[in-house]
Design brief:
The model has no long low-confidence stretch (mean pLDDT about 95). The two termini are about 35 Å apart. This protein has 10 helices and 10 strands. The protein folds into 2 domains: about 160 residues, Rossmann fold (3-Layer(aba) Sandwich); about 70 residues, no CATH class. It is globular, with a radius of gyration of 17 Å. By secondary structure, the protein is α/β, with parallel strands linked by helices. The chain has a 6-stranded mixed sheet, with helices on both faces. A 4-stranded antiparallel sheet has the order 2-1-4-5, with helices on one face. It binds adenosine-5'-diphosphate and magnesium ion. Magnesium ion (MG) binds next to helix 1.
C-alpha cells in the first residue's frame, strides 16, 4: 500500500531523513520506532506532502505521491493523527469529529463514518457535546484517532499516540490500534514507546538519526541486541 524508496528529507542544512526505504502492506500494523529527534515526524510529514523530499520516492497503491501537495494527498484515503493530538479544545467532541470528515461531501457517508467511530469508541456517544479540552489526555487521544478515521482512510498514520497519556491508559491506546486494524484499516504507527509498539505491530522498522537501521517482526526486534540495549533498557 505504502512504499517509501530511498527517501531523503531535509530542513535547511540538516538532513533529517537519509536514504530511508520501507513499506506497509495492506492490512498490516507497521511500527516505525525511534527516539526523540530520530526523524519520525519528518517521515510522516513527507508522506503527507507537507515536506518535499530532496531525493527518493513515495508511492501509495502504486501511485507516486511524493511531490504532490498535501491537499491532494489527503484526498487519497490517507490520514495523519498528529503528535500532540491538536484537537480544537473549545469545540465539542462531535464538532472535532466532523472536522475530520472535511474532505467528504456526502452526508450519508459522514453519518456512516460517525457510526463507525462510535462503534470503536462507544463512550464518545455520551460525551459528544462536551468540549474536547475538558477530556483527559487518553480520551483526547482517542477522539484524535476517531477524527483521523472520519475521512475513512485506507492508511491511518499515528504520530506517538501514547505520548502524554497516563501510563495506565497507554495500553488502551494500543488496544485501540489493534481494533482499528481489525476494521480493515492499515496502520503506520510511529512510537517512542518501543515496548508496546513492538507488541501490537506485524512488522517494525528502527529509525536512528534519519536512517532505517533495522527491520523485522515485533518479536524479532524485541529480541535483538540493538533494540534491547537502545530502547528497552535491557
Ligand atoms: N521545522 C524544523 N526545522 C529544522 N529542523 C527540524 C524541524 N523539525 C524537525 N527538525 C529536526 O529534524 C530532526 C528530526 O525531527 P523529528 O522528525 O521531529 O523527530 P522525531 O519525530 O523522531 O522526534 C531533529 O534533529 C529535529 O531537530
Ligand atoms: Mg515526532
Amino acid at each position: 500500500m505504502l512504499l517509501v524508496n530511498n527517501l531523503s528529507v531535509g530542513y535547511k542544512g540538516l538532513l533529517a531523513i537519509q536514504d530511508a526505504s520501507f513499506k506497509v502492506n495492506k492490512g498490516e500494523i507497521v511500527s516505525l520506532i525511534g527516539s526523540n529527534g530520530a526523524g519520525k515526524t519528518t517521515m510522516l510529514k513527507a508522506i503527507l506532502g507537507l515536506l518535499k523530499p530532496m531525493k527518493g520516492e513515495i508511492r501509495l497503491n502504486g501511485e507516486v505521491i511524493s511531490g504532490q501537495p498535501a491537499y491532494d494527498v489527503v484526498k487519497k484515503k490517507i490520514s495523519l493523527v498528529p503528535e500532540g493530538r491538536r484537537l480544537f479544545s473549545r469545540l465539542s467532541v462531535q464538532d472535532n469529529l466532523l472536522l475530520g470528515a472535511y474532505t467528504v461531501q456526502n452526508k450519508d457517508v459522514i453519518a456512516e463514518s460517525l457510526e463507525m467511530v462510535l462503534r470503536l469508541f462507544p463512550w464518545v456517544k455520551e460525551r459528544a457535546g462536551q468540549r474536547a479540552g475538558t477530556l483527559s489526555g487518553g480520551e483526547q487521544q482517542q477522539v484524535a484517532i476517531a477524527r483521523g478515521l472520519m475521512s475513512r482512510p485506507d492508511l491511518l498514520m499515528l504520530d506517538e499516540p501514547s505520548l502524554g497519556v497516563m501510563p495506565k491508559v497507554v495500553s488502551e491506546i494500543f488496544t485501540t490500534v489493534e481494533r482499528i486494524a481489525a476494521e480493515g484499516v492499515t496502520v503506520l504507527l510511529v512510537e517512542q514507546n518501543v515496548f508496546e509498539a513492538l507488541q501490537v505491530c506485524h512488522r517494525a522498522y528502527v529509525l536512528q538519526t534519519g536512517r532505517i537501521v533495522m527491520e523485522g517482526t515485533g518479536p524479532e526486534l524485541s529480541q535483538s541486541d540493538l533494540v534491547r540495549k537502545a530502547y528497552l533498557g535491557m
